[in-house]
What we know:
The chain is of the alpha/beta class. The chain folds into 3 domains: 3-128, Rossmann fold (3-Layer(aba) Sandwich), CATH 3.40.50; 141-310, Rossmann fold; 314-461, Orthogonal Bundle (Helicase, Ruva Protein, domain 3). It has 20 helices and 14 strands. The N and C termini lie far apart (77 Å). The strands form 4 sheets. The chain has a 5-stranded parallel β-sheet, sandwiched between helices. The structure holds adenosine-5'-triphosphate and magnesium ion. Adenosine-5'-triphosphate (ATP) is lined by residues 138, 140-143, 169, 171-177, 282, 322, 325, 358-359, 362.
Amino acid sequence: MATILIIDDEESIRFSLKGILEDEGHEVMEAETGEDGLEALKSRVPQLLFLDIWLPGLDGLEVLERTRQSHPDLPVVMISGHGNIETAVTALKAGAFDFIEKPLSLEKVITSTRNALEMTRLAEENRVLKSRIMSTHPFQLTGESEPVIALREAIRQVAPTDAWVLITGENGTGKEIVARSLHLESRRADKPLVAVNCAAIPEELIEAELFGHEKGAFTGAETSKIGKFELAHMGTLLLDEIADMSLKTQAKILRILQEQRFEHVGGSKTIQVDVRVIAATNKDLLKEIEAGNFREDLYYRLKVFPLEVPPLRERTGDLALLIEDFVGLLCREHGFKPLTFSPDALAALACYPWPGNVRELKNFVERMQILFSGKTVYASQLPREFRGSVPIQPQSESRPCPENHQPCPAIPDGPIELKQARAEFETRFLVTKLKEFDNNVSQLAKAVGLERSSLYRKLKLYGIQTD
Ligand SMILES: Nc1ncnc2c1ncn2[C@@H]1O[C@H](COP(=O)(O)OP(=O)(O)OP(=O)(O)O)[C@@H](O)[C@H]1O
Ligand SMILES: [Mg+2]
């Protein structure tokens, strides 16, 4: 079933067209003039428009042109009287989907309606498929560590409901990916996900951005514009960086979010929407409330279902998978040869605290991929800040693991191959013992029961320096 708008000044035409369309199961809106029709489009967007060519006031071609500008995806079927065929052809050239002639033929109306709706459905499906491709890669939530599995499970449970979700987590942890997953796994997936970055919009423009505005509503408003709220109708609205919204705007949106009703800035018509709200922030909202920067009532309204995205340092077991993903992506996009990290390099990366989280890791992998395309990177080749916590060069560069993250050596919490685990252990073991034996490889070889040459090979393999 679709919603269809008919703009025709002849009541008998509206009546018979409405009858045919309602028999087909559609809901019909009517307007007598072009002006009324354009007004109706502002409060509700149909899936199809039947538009008379000859109308008093604004004529059909003008209405078509304005509709193409404001609603480029809305198919328009022109209704032409005898002798209007040439104009109908002009309309087709101007972007109309089809035309039907008066007197109306039942068969032609039904075929044209079905074709137009099918075209819209295919275009929509195409958009959804594209956004799904975009969302499975590179927007997927990679990771097999416990916190990521728990997060994915929570997303799976809450996504199909209409509950509001508050996503918190440090910078770069993947809050936006979580929001996209929530949308794509919801029944709203084929409708838009509209994101508003509250930190990026100047205070004086945020209302117009969210709720839209009428022409002339304020200086610079040369045309009317639909707001993000309306664009998200039937879909999801992501209020990103919500803590950066001013108290004044917070007060205003709280009422609107609850009632889902609002007016354009400078307008008087009330618009009703059906929008699911997701908010995200990297700030501690309870602290913001204490400091008087965030409204408590808004906090509790948003926090129906809280989701916390863990920092990367708490899920270092995912490092190898994330790196593999990013390397794959870079190689596909830029034709690099994949790099690999040796076990000792991975061990060093696991001890780094990743203050910029997954975003920092992604940028780091890109930098290393440029430098080491097709090669293996050993710990000693890592940039200095990443070598700090594994004492690869004990004399000069050792730095203890930060106290607030898991101790090194740590047992990775994701799946790991025994071979890799052994290599990581051997690396740490040899680094420590080498230091105890004052870098004397012969003595260490004897102590650990290896041929000197075998020990040398191992040290070289793991990138452990002996001098
Ligand atoms: N689990 C993940 N799997 C794959 N890529 C991820 C993951 N988490 C984050 N990323 C990538 O890291 C980058 C940052 O993610 P995102 O923008 O979602 O973080 P954020 O938490 O919203 O950051 P900010 O607080 O700065 O807004 C993106 O490029 C994203 O693709
Ligand atoms: Mg973000």
